[in-house]
Amino acid sequence: MALTKLARAGIRHGMFFFCFTTYATSLFAGDGDAQRPNILLMTVDNLGYGDLQIYNPPSRIVTPNLAKLASRGVRLTQFYTASPTCTVSRACLLTGRIAQRHGLINQLPGLEGNYGVGLDHNEILIPEILKSAGYRTGCFGKWNIGFAKGSRPTARGFDEFLGNASGNIDYYRHVYNGKHDVYRGTAGTPVTEHHATGTYSSDMFADAAIDFITRHQNRQPWFCYLPFNAPHSPNPKNKLPGQINQWQAPAAAFARYGMSETETDPKLRYMATVTALDDAIGRVLDCLDKQGATKNTFIFCFSDNGAFRRNRDGIDIGSNEPLRDGGVTCWEGGLRVVAMASFPGVIPAESVVDQPLWSPDLLPTFANLTDTQLPDTRLDGKDALPILTGKSPSQHQSFYFEFRKHAALRMGDWKIVRTNPDESWQLFNLKDDPIEIVNESTAQPEKLTELVHEWQTWQAEF
Question: Global pTM?
Answer without folding.
Answer: 0.93
